[in-house]
From TrEMBL:
Top EC category: oxidoreductase
Organism whose genome encodes this protein: Aureicoccus marinus
Binding site for [4Fe-4S] cluster 2: C198, C214, C241, C244
Any single Gene Ontology cellular-component annotation: cytoplasm
Database matches in InterPro entries: 4Fe4S_Fe-S-bd (IPR017896), 4Fe4S_Fe_S_CS (IPR017900), QueG (IPR004453), QueG_DUF1730 (IPR013542)
Lineage: Bacteria, Pseudomonadati, Bacteroidota, Flavobacteriia, Flavobacteriales
Gene: queG
EC number(s) given by UniProt: 1.17.99.6
Binding site for tRNA: K223
UniProt protein name: Epoxyqueuosine reductase
Positions annotated to bind [4Fe-4S] cluster 1: C188, C191, C194, C248
Biological processes annotated in GO: tRNA queuosine(34) biosynthetic process
Binding-site residues, cob(II)alamin: R63, D134, L158, I169, S216, C241, D242
Needed cofactors: cob(II)alamin; [4Fe-4S] cluster
Length: 309
């Protein structure tokens, strides 16, 4: 009984601190093998739906078992951080995904995860753990769903009835026993808005996305020339794509984030198609100083813009 009350106390402390740090929500699940996800991931890879994202083939076991990432792991703490912007790009513009408007989320979230882990160690004791932000072999959406933060929608993104899907997912995997949350039910119903709206038909069936057909894949992950067969299908997206999220009815509940580091460079929102077509490397560096867009480099963004012209 004492052990259980201690778990409850620690769990409540962690969730309260996560909220103070600005996270939308925090859920906890038992660090265990992801049995349901294993065959799905294997099949997805076998069918080549990861395209040239060869890193998805690496560390298969680690993706499915957090105890291989943090020895002795007992809990996966999943966290959501809102990035929905207050203002959006000029309508007469080539588009970038809203998650990339401001500072690269990896830096912002890592700082918050370090603070949360430091808090746990200061207030609970010697806890071994690691923070993860989408750059390690962790199935973020699966853990967030197990932790009750939402359900996986037909577009394969995590969805919540309260806040939709415009948020980042991160984890702290720790060797601390906590109180575990339970998954929520699926509320997609008979809706097929995301499937119908996808410009490249990348959502090949409900809950199944062919990553190698996604605009985000083409504009960010693919390093080769863009395939001519895709010409005219990108709907003016030059970095990433938000179509499946923009049309989702649950995103009518999205509200603007409160993270100053996610605010865009003022020039970004006002730039027109002509501005983008004439962009110099100097302007690129200024507008995307600490942005995730730097991942595609000036040459990559230019390639994408030229493809859209």
């Amino acid at each position: 009984m004492i052990q259980q009350s201690l778990r409850e106390k620690h769990t409540e402390m962690i969730k309260t601190e996560a909220q103070r740090l600005g996270f939308l929500s925090c859920g906890v699940s038992k660090a265990d093998f992801l049995e349901e996800e294993a065959p799905r991931l294997e099949q997805w890879l076998k069918q080549g739906m990861h395209g040239q994202m060869h890193y998805m083939e690496n560390h298969f076991d680690k993706r499915l078992d957090p105890r291989l990432l943090v020895p002795g792991a007992q809990s996966v703490i999943s966290l959501l951080l809102n990035y929905y912007p207050d203002e959006q790009q000029n309508e007469e513009s080539y588009k970038i995904s809203k998650y990339a408007y401001g500072e690269d989320y990896h830096f912002v979230i890592r700082d918050k995860l370090k603070e949360l882990l430091a808090f746990i160690r200061d207030h609970i004791g010697e806890v071994d753990g690691r923070g993860f932000v989408d750059s390690a072999p962790v199935l973020d959406k699966a853990w967030a769903a197990k932790s009750g933060l939402g359900w996986i929608g037909k577009h394969s993104n995590l969805l919540s009835q309260k806040v939709g899907s415009f948020y980042f997912i991160a984890e702290l995997i720790v060797d601390l026993p906590l109180v575990y949350d339970t998954p929520v039910t699926d509320h997609c119903g008979s809706c097929t808005a995301c499937i119908d709206a996808c410009p490249t038909q990348a959502i090949i069936a409900p809950y199944q996305v062919d990553g190698s057909k996604c605009i985000s894949y083409f504009t960010i992950e693919l390093k080769d020339e863009l395939p001519s067969a895709m010409s005219g299908q990108f709907d003016d997206w030059m970095f990433g794509c938000d179509v499946c999220q923009d049309v989702c009815p649950w995103n009518r509940f999205s509200s603007p984030h409160a993270e100053p580091r996610f605010n865009p460079h003022p020039e970004l929102l006002s730039m027109t198609k002509r501005d983008w077509e004439e962009i110099t490397e100097e302007v690129f560096r200024k507008v995307f100083k600490k942005s995730a867009v730097k991942r595609t480099k000036f040459s990559g963004l230019n390639r994408n813009i030229t493809f859209l012209e």
